Amino acid sequence: MLRAKQVSAPNHLLGALPRTDYQKLLPVLEPVDLAFGEVLYESQALIRHVYFPVDCFVSMLTTVDVSRAAEVGLIGAEGMIGVPMALGVAASPFRAVVQGAGTAMRLKTADFRRSFSNSLVLKREVFLFTHLLMIQIAQTAACNRFHVVTQRLARWILMTRDRVNSHEFRITQEFLALMLGVRRVGVSAAMCRLRERKLIDYRRGTITILDHAGLVAAACACYKTVKDAYAQAQSKKGSSQPAQRK
Asked: What is the CATH number of domain 1-119?
């Protein structure tokens, strides 16, 4: 018995597809470069493309008014931007903003609908990711309500680290304030606390994690809750991959 052949793709969701399904997608998958701060969707705007991040990551923002917003989800190579399409919804409930510049694979919504209908594995993977994203959104909402800014900042840094796969990345305090839904002075104070504990360094817009274990301890439990949910899903999926005969 052999496991169904999967492809080697930098996006984990695409990488879970059988080779035949992935090859059918290739002619309509378009590689794109995404710039920091680029808006992929405005809230309630029509979704014209879905994106599969490769080495970029995207924040999902819920808007309060014209001048205020807060991050409710962070998506990198583990998933897809545009999951409402899988639920038959053509508009995005969130503003999608590129937080880490890089590349992605883009698919027109018509091509996604067709592929989604024809591939049981793509459907399964997208639904699983949608479930995990719902967990992240719910946990982020609770985190923003009950935890202090320093804990939330540590959680955010760790989540970003997991998506860029690096202990160092660039981000401005202005953007952090937007992500966390707080004033910049609150971000500055939280950053100073983490620096004083020698958990991170922050110079010229670059965050460097100095003590990963210490930063995990400084973060709220929300980080581990979401990370464990993703890990458990991957573990269960790995143990239940379909097998086929030679």
From this structure: 2.60.120.10
For the chain, where are the E strands, in sequence order?
Answer: 2-3, 30-34, 39-41, 49-53, 57-65, 68-75, 95-100, 102-108, 168-170, 200-203, 206-209, 243-244
Task: Quote the CA–CA distance of 208 and 157 in Å, as a whole number.
Answer: 9
CATH 2.60.120.10-classified regions of the chain: 1-119
Q: Which DSSP string do the residues of 93-104 spell out, in sequence order?
A: SSEEEEEE-EEE
DSSP state of 182: S
| pTM listed for this prediction | 0.88
Q: What is the pLDDT of residues 210-244, one digit of tens each?
A: 999 999 999 999 999 999 999 998 887 766 555 44
If you average pLDDT over residues 110-128, what whole number do you get? 95
Of the CATH numbers 3.30.1360.170, 1.10.10.10, 1.20.1630.10, 3.30.360.10, which one belongs to the domain with range 137-241? 1.10.10.10
Mean pLDDT score, 51-63: 93
